[in-house]
Structure formats: C-alpha cells, structure tokens
Write a structure and sequence with these properties.
This protein has 208 residues and is of the alpha+beta class. The chain is built from three helices and 13 strands; from the N terminus they run αββββββααβββββββ. It has a 13-stranded antiparallel sheet with strand order 6-5-4-3-2-1-13-12-11-10-9-8-7, with helices on one face.
C-alpha cells in the first residue's frame, strides 16, 4: 500500500473527477472514433464503452476488420467474418485496462483510496501526483496543476512479450470536451521509456 496524504489525495482526485466529468453529467457510455498508430501503421478504429464493464471495438487492420465485443468477463472476437470466443487472458486485460482508465477511476472515485504524493516534474512540467488503487494495484495519476486533467497515467504490469514487469505511461493531450465529458484526442503509450504506440481521436459522444 502506498501511503501519502489521504485528505489531499481525495481533494485532488475530486478536482480531476470534476474536470473530466461535469458535475451535472451522468456518464453511462462513451463512443470514440479515431485511429490507432502502431509500428508506423495507421488503423481506423471506433470504440464504445458502457461503464462499468462492456467494450465494443472495431479496428480496420491491414488484414481486414477486427471486431471485439466484451462484457462482464467474457466476449467474442470477429476477424474476417469468423467469430471466436475472446481468450480469457485478453478478456481480463480488457477489463483491467478499462478499470485503469481515468473515466472509470473518476466514476469509482469513492473506492480507489487516493493518496497525494506531492508534485513531480516530467519534461519540465510540474504535476500533482495522486496514487490510486485499482484491482489491488497502484496507478499514479499526474494531474495538470491548472486544468486538473490526468495528463500522465502510470502503472506497472506484466508484459507477456517481454516476460517481465514493465512500467507503462499513458500520456494524454489535446483534451476536448463534449456533453460535459473531457477526453484526450492524443494518447501516447510509453513502455519502459520507449514509445510503443498512439491513438488519435477525432470525435467522442456521450450516452448515445
């Protein structure tokens, strides 16, 4: 357990929550459209998330369209028209990724034990750092001191390709607000200090 200042942690988490979800908005679902850029390949994608536990995603890859439909622990994948069950590990990863997302953390703010850890400088910018506990693991939120957006989200996870624990950082920028919900239209993923991919969004819709 990470120990910090719990009172300030709650204060900062509540600032983040109000920054990303307007106090008068009840967020049930978000639909995003944009593209994923991995290994120099741009792949159009659309994602709809129904909180707390459902994801529908379509990615147009070089080999055709991939659809993933996940809900509450299981799901299916449709590749080239062939449907198959989601492997359990993939289903688990989808749920953990969803639980660690800043909107899920904001919706679940009562249960994540926020601890304020002081400020941290990254690339010359100073952020307020709050540690939250998600599924028993630590997630660090680095909040912009003025907007209170979580510009950097950092956590450790086991990477099967590398066979070890890695540090993952999601860098969020170009925040846009629609219907009371803010979302970063650029999300860069950095693993152990190296950029591994990015998502660029062009629109989002709330509760549609």
């Amino acid at each position: 357990m990470v120990k910090g200042d719990a009172e300030k942690g709650e204060e900062w988490l509540s600032k983040m929550t109000s920054a990303v979800i307007d106090d008068n908005t009840e967020l049930n679902s978000i639909s995003l459209s944009g593209e994923m850029n991995m290994q120099g390949r741009k792949m159009p994608m659309s994602t709809t998330i129904n909180y707390p536990d459902a994801i529908n995603q379509t990615i147009k890859g070089p080999m055709g369209e991939i659809k993933v439909n996940y809900k509450n622990g299981s799901g299916k994948m449709i590749v080239g028209g062939q449907e198959r069950p989601l492997p359990p590990q993939m289903a688990k990863n989808l749920q953990s990724t969803l639980n660690r997302s800043f909107l899920s953390i904001a919706l679940n703010a009562e249960n994540v034990n926020p601890q304020y850890l002081g400020s941290e400088k990254v690339d010359g910018t100073s952020y307020e750092k709050v540690n939250v506990t998600v599924d028993g693991s630590n997630v660090e939120l680095l909040l912009d001191t003025e907007t209170h957006y979580p510009d950097i989200i950092r956590y450790k996870q086991f990477n099967p390709q590398m066979g070890e624990q890695v540090t993952v950082e999601n860098h969020n920028s170009n925040w846009q607000t629609v219907d009371g919900v803010a979302y970063p239209y650029l999300q860069e993923t950095i693993i152990n200090g190296n950029k591994s991919g990015e998502a660029v969004y062009k629109s989002h819709e709330v509760n549609k």
